[in-house]
Amino acid sequence: MKSKNIKIIKSYNLTWYDLEAPKEKEYKFLREHFQFHPLDIQDCISPVQRPKIEEYNHYIFLVVRIPFYQKEERVIRALEIDIFVGQNYLVTVHQGKSTTLKDFVRECYDYRAIREKYFQFGPGFLLYEILNRMFDRCYSLLDAVSSEIDRVENKMFKGQEREIVESIAGIKRNVINFRKIMKAHGPVIKSLINSEKFFLNLNGARFNNKEILFDNLLDKIQDIWDILDGHTETISALETTNENLISHRLNEIMKTLTIVSSILLPAALVTQIFGMSYDNAPLLTNRIGFVVVFLLIFFLPLILILFFKKKKWL
């Protein structure tokens, strides 16, 4: 069966079938050429919400969820990669959004030396390299999140507290999504380490470095998780600091408005009193009445200003 969405890569006794953005034609290829469980193929068609591993007599089915950055929405989402591992084959099913996986497929497809390097130890070593590259890609996303946190921190102390509230919420969302995506990978990798079936080399001998290699993946997952914990604590601290700065600024504004109102209140009171219409109002018929009223309006706020300065409220 020929399809532009299927790349078949062979070296030694191992064949890698890569299905990119598969349609019904490609899923039919899986059903006809492999004895995969129908539910596993259905998992390839419908999104799976968590990483998982299923082990059968003649193959292992693996679902991996890798974080990727969706530029249009500026949000980190999960990218699902479905992997079937047999004794002399490996099948990957994905939607083609991972440049990391696509680049590795192209390298193996175009260059014989790379095929021989990663195919000579069987499907276990090839699977390791795929996962290793995918988890390495997580570090660049973590660096991007770290840079965004630094940018928010710099803006925070330049009087832009209100403008960065939305930025902080976006970073928190991405960190939360990242944590949800990575959380369940540890048990899946441990199950792979404990598998006894398909980590074979050409001679049928056990691939002895399996535990060492996949322990390395566990270390990377733990390292990614520790970095995420650090980002979580940092962005929470920045959010608290930003809220305190906004609160302090609002308090200063309210304080200023209160003082201005207090200063203007006596002048307004004097104006209201002498603006009343009744016959016996004082100073209305006196030649110096206007001057007295003007001096009251001028000096009462001045006295209050001096009083506030003495109390260090200004």
Blueprint of the fold:
Layout: E1 6-11, E2 14-20, H1 24-33, H2 38-45, E3 52-55, E4 60-70, E5 75-85, E6 89-94, H3 99-110, H4 112-119, H5 123-156, H6 165-182, H7 185-194, H8 210-274, H9 289-310
Parallel strand pairs: 2-6
Antiparallel strand pairs: 1-2, 3-4, 4-5, 5-6
Helix pairs in contact: 3-4, 5-6, 5-8, 6-8, 7-8, 8-9
Q: Tally the structural domains.
A: 2
Global geometry? rod-shaped
Structural class: alpha+beta
Which CATH class of the largest domain is shown? Alpha Beta
Report the count of strand segments. Answer: 6
How much helicity do the residues have? 55-70%
The CATH homologous superfamily of the largest domain is called: CorA soluble domain-like
| Whole-angstrom Rg | 35 Å
* Number of helices, where a helix is a run of at least 4 consecutive DSSP H or I residues: 9
